[in-house]
């Protein structure tokens, strides 16, 4: 078995690699991780205007701890942002709370599903049914050691289902299982709706960014999440490339080397890019898909739990509600410490009615996380060494790069001031929007970043096993699947030639083709066969699974719409009832013209209707809320009473005809 030589890390000239396979009985070992190290890009394509076909392409900075929505594409992260490029400029789209970033959180309540800011706000009261960190789950296997470590910090339940993680929550009175792809899709739907509300048009196409260090399974799962959300994912774009686009580093035609340091909420990666004439090439990449702001928070949380136990004798490790409150306040404190030397963490009714109060200093925060901060410097050294280049331009991406100690370590290492011209939280989404505009045909110089194709070793066999990883032995790497090729004529060693094509598309998805060249020359090729990857590892969703998840997503959307109708109906009803109270209780108004027994009857009806709204209204309808609430007898009585007293009261009250009629149209 042979590994790739270092020469394969140099720039290929094609997006497909074809080699004759001539050795017998060898297992084909493909290190997909080297894909991230091999630079390949396509030059500017012929300008094609696809705006009519695609509409507005949104960019989502996703799979981070928050999402950023730009008017042109999506970025999947622990935070989300959406953006669009219009009129030659990128716009960051604020969500319905007015925030430019949306937490990648989903909370399942008894009768509703919350996404984003509202889900995060509900965490302290509903921790076991609030899901976050989908980026650390998506595309992984349940036996992943890093995943096992993370489960200890999550209040929600994660269990194994067909070898993959499945999230169990209580929703609508029953336990429901969701895949990480489904959870991510729920947040993507939220971003899609945010973009549609801003644009006033339907959105169907998007660009989603992922860490350069994401493997094949994680990239495929990310694209599946977009499909489940009803989006045609045009590109799964590398975050370093998107960041470089955001910083405008593609404007100068001269060749330059840029190091992108991306430290977000859930992952960390460092990539060295070569940029020349609009061509982006990943020369080297390294990182840790389980290192980020969440880990910094967990260090502080563990410290505060021990401190609280030492002071009170109470261990809150298994108290999900208390941990939810602590997690929220620790994240706030971490952000505060980027600008202050100390902060006070105060939590009322932390556990069992007891309050929590503790001071956290920047020095203590740095002490708790110093080994993690220094750990981020090793990949920086590694990529520079692998690419054999000197220190140059550095670009910061991710909210965790705001931590003063991180900036200090980078400044000392590079010996220069850091580039801070772009908001690190929004850089990736910003770049995704630029790419979305390019794909729409809004610009003539397309930058179609691709990973390097996979150079295979020459060999002959009917069974080709594909692994990813950087270990020497196949047992130490991740088995992607196996390819079976039929119809190969038996022959002596070295005579048959099998042309195997390994291609990675623009989304980083592996595509394989094979042909039996036989003993004839290139111009008269023998039988061509297709290779099918066997999904033995269970790392990818099947077409049927994706279709089922899409249907379920549409079902949730319908349920959410029904819940919105119910809330709007109850709000309208409340306004009418309390408006009636005001009208009939106003001294000198209609009430003064009524007889005493009429007043008592009306007061009783209004009191009953108000009580019904408070107690029964929220669960009044499982069908059409307008119809079922409109049939409530006490409300019908109120309507009739209002009409009766208007017509019979001795009054010159002229405005009563303007008081809204209580009928089904109003409800």
From TrEMBL:
Residues 610-630, 646-667 are annotated as: Disordered. Belongs to the heat shock protein 70 family. Its EC number is 3.6.4.10. The keyword Signal applies. GO terms for molecular function: ATP binding; ATP-dependent protein folding chaperone. InterPro entries: ATPase_NBD, BIP_NBD, Heat_shock_70_CS, HSP70_peptide-bd_sf, Hsp_70_fam. It comes from the Eukaryota. Residues 1-44 form the signal peptide. This is non-chaperonin molecular chaperone ATPase. It is an enzyme of class 3 (hydrolase).
């Amino acid at each position: 078995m042979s590994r790739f030589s270092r020469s394969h890390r140099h720039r290929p000239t094609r997006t497909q690699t074809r080699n004759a396979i001539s050795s017998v009985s060898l297992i084909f070992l493909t290190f997909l991780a080297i894909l991230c190290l091999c630079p390949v890009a396509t030059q500017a394509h012929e300008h094609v205007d696809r705006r009519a076909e695609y509409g507005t392409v949104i960019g989502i900075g996703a799979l981070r701890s928050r999402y950023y929505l730009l008017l042109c594409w999506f970025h999947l992260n622990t935070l989300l942002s959406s953006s669009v490029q219009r009129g030659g400029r990128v716009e960051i789209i604020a969500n319905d709370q007015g925030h430019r970033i949306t937490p990648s959180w989903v909370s399942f309540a008894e009768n509703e599903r919350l996404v984003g800011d509202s889900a995060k706000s509900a965490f302290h009261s509903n921790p076991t049914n609030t899901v976050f960190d989908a980026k650390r789950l998506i595309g992984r296997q349940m036996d992943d050691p890093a995943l096992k470590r993370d489960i200890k910090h999550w209040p929600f339940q994660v269990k194994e289902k067909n070898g993959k993680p499945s999230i169990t929550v209580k929703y609508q009175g029953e336990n429901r299982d969701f895949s990480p792809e489904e959870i991510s899709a729920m947040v993507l739907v939220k971003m899609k709706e945010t973009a549609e509300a801003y644009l006033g048009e339907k959105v169907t196409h998007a660009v989603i960014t992922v860490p350069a260090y994401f493997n094949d399974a994680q990239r495929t799962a990310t694209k599946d999440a977009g499909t489940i959300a009803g989006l045609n994912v045009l590109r799964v774009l590398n975050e370093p490339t998107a960041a470089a686009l955001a910083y405008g580093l593609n404007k100068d035609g001269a060749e330059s080397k840029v190091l992108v340091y991306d430290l977000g909420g859930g992952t960390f990666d460092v990539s060295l890019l070569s940029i020349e004439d609009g061509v982006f090439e990943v020369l080297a990449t390294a990182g840790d898909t389980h290192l980020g702001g969440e880990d910094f928070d967990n260090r502080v949380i563990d410290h505060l739990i021990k401190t609280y136990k030492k002071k009170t004798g109470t261990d809150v490790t298994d108290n999900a509600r208390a941990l939810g409150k602590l997690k929220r306040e620790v994240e706030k404190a971490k952000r505060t410490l980027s600008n202050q030397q100390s902060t006070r963490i105060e939590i009322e009714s932390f556990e069992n009615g007891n309050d929590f109060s503790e001071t956290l200093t920047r020095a203590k925060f740095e002490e708790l996380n110093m080994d993690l901060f220094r750990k981020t410097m090793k990949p920086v050294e590694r990529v520079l060494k692998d690419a054999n280049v000197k220190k140059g331009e550095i670009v910061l991406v991710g909210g965790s790069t705001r931590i003063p100690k991180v900036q200090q370590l980078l400044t000392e290492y590079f010996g220069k001031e850091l580039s801070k011209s772009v908001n690190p939280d929004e850089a990736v989404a910003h770049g995704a929007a630029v790419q979305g505009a390019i794909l729409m045909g809004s610009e003539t110089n397309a930058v179609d970043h691709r990973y390097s194709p996979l150079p295979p070793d020459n060999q002959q066999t009917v069974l080709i096993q594909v692994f990813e990883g950087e270990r020497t032995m196949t047992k130490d790497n991740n088995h992607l699947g196996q390819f079976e090729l039929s119809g190969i004529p038996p022959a002596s060693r070295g005579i048959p030639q099998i042309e195997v094509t390994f291609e990675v598309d623009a989304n980083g998805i592996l595509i394989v083709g094979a042909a039996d060249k036989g003993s004839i020359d290139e111009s008269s090729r023998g039988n061509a066969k297709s290779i099918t990857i066997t999904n033995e590892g269970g790392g990818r969703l099947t077409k049927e699974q994706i279709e089922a998840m899409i249907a379920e997503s549409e079902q949730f959307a319908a349920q959410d719409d029904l819940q919105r109708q119910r809330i709007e109906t109850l709000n309208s009803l409340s306004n009418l009832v309390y408006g009636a109270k005001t009208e009939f209780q106003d001294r000198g108004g209609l009430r003064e013209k009524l007889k005493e027994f009429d007043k008592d009857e009306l007061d009783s009806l209004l009191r009953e209707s108000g009580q019904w709204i408070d107690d029964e209204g929220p669960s009044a309808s499982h069908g059409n809320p307008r119809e079922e609430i409109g049939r409530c007898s006490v409300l019908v009585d109120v309507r009739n009473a209002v009409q009766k007293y208007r017509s019979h009261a001795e009054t010159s009250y002229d405005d009563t005809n303007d008081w809204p009629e209580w009928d089904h149209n109003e409800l």
